[in-house]
Amino acid sequence: MRQQWLPFGGGEHFELLHGRHAAQVAICENVKCWREGLYAHDEAGEFVGRYAQAGALNVYQSQCGFGARRQVEALAALTSCWVDLDTYRAGDRDYTPDELLDAAQALAPWLPTPTAVIHSGRGWYFSWVFDRPLAPEYLPKWQWVQDAITAALEPVGADSACRDAARVLRVVGTVNSKSGRVVSGYQQTAAPVPFLALERAARGAQKPSERRNSQAPERQRQQFLRGASLAQARMADCHALAALRGSPKVSDYRSRLLYAYAMAGAWYWGDRQQALDELAAFSAQHFEGGRRYTVGRVRTVLERMTQAWDGVAGIWQGRRVDRRYSPSNGYLVRLLGVTTAEQRDMRTLIGRDERQLRRAGRRRAAGLATREEYLATAAERRGGARRLALEGYSQRQIAKRLGVSQAWVSRLLNDPG
């Protein structure tokens, strides 16, 4: 049976989304022009309450918490999954909240009841608020679940563009100028949900295709997670590399750096406008003459991003693969001219030598010997075994003294090399 509470206003809306974290929240207005600010958590909550109480026009809040900027790369807290249902595009029917919930459940019976249902003034939002916000490293898994929900509810108007973690949605109690209606009809229909339960439900809904040569759903999921995880790390590396080279701003490799950033961001941006905004922000933040570095430099990347949204797949070795770019780390290191010194500050943009140094460091931290140490110990043990044999010790005695097997001693002494 569906659990329900009475509707409530903008302050409660903010508390439901953001009451479990302390990161910054973006507040936006769109009256004569788009205005946006990123505010400390408590200050943002006060703004939302005031706007709702005044019935202000076209006010939005981010659905997640952020660090220095409202960009996917700067995420600080993932609060929920959501879906924007443009029911006015899916048909002329004017749903009630219960009718819409019933329609969604018929399409995707695996979905838990959303924590909240919000009327946006024209369409509806569903929000599955987490009982505990997720750290940024969960972004690849979060994105996969978000995409699965959006795809499942497409027949009732789910907006495929409204699925990136940097998205802003209207604040309850404010007014949608397109319809003149208040963002209302708000109901809390269920308690907050654990993200793992939502992920488990999405995985359980996957059905293997009947086509013999198609990929199994779990393999497709793993392929997406590998690509998305690598992309998240590369976005951070592009910011770090630009910061290292800026004095105060980058004057070389700008086109290539923007290209690398676009290839990574395409795994997370929800629509072309979001991509353009984040690329422009990256250029303005890091480049000399940043306004010159625009979409024309990365047109092919964005074309492939759009194809991925539309379900167009590439074929590689007879298998369907994501059309978005996922080049090798070695290629990006060469493309960007990442020096040995710069690689020490990178997460993924590293060459073979740096990779081996890090592997050796991890082995030392775990108390394991490096390859060089292992080979030196093995050579010392072989020399010791041969020396003891010349002194007249038996193979059993040599094995006991060196802490090795008698078979190993036998093979060593009988080896003419």
Overview of this protein structure:
- 36% of the residues are buried.
- The N and C termini lie far apart (78 Å).
- The mean pLDDT is 89.
- The strands form four sheets. Strands 4-5-7-6-11 form a five-stranded antiparallel β-sheet, with helices on both faces. A four-stranded antiparallel β-sheet has the order 2-1-3-8. Strands 9-10 form a two-stranded antiparallel ribbon.
- It is built from 16 helices and 13 strands.
- α5 crosses α7.
- The chain has three domains: 195 residues, DNA primase, PRIM domain; 145 residues, no CATH class; 35 residues.
- Helix content is 46%, strand content 15%.
- The protein is of the alpha+beta class and 417 residues long.
User: Which structural class fits the helix and strand makeup?
Assistant: alpha+beta
> What is the CATH class of the largest domain?
Alpha Beta
Would you report the number of β strands? 13
Kindly state the percentage of residues in helix. 40-55%
Write a brief caption for the model:
The chain is 46% helix and 15% strand. The chain is an alpha+beta fold and 417 residues long. The strands form four sheets. The protein has a five-stranded antiparallel β-sheet, sandwiched between helices. The protein has a four-stranded antiparallel β-sheet with strand order 2-1-3-8.
Strand-helix topology:
Layout: H1 10-18, E1 25-30, E2 34-39, H2 41-54, E3 59-62, E4 65-66, E5 75-85, H3 87-90, H4 97-107, E6 116-119, E7 124-134, H5 139-152, E8 168-170, E9 175-176, E10 181-182, E11 184-188, H6 195-204, H7 217-245, H8 254-265, H9 272-286, H10 299-309, E12 313-316, E13 319-322, H11 329-336, H12 340-343, H13 352-365, H14 371-390, H15 395-402, H16 406-414
Antiparallel strand pairs: 1-2, 1-3, 3-8, 4-5, 5-7, 6-7, 6-11, 9-10, 12-13
Helix pairs in contact: 1-2, 5-6, 5-7, 7-8, 8-9, 14-15, 15-16
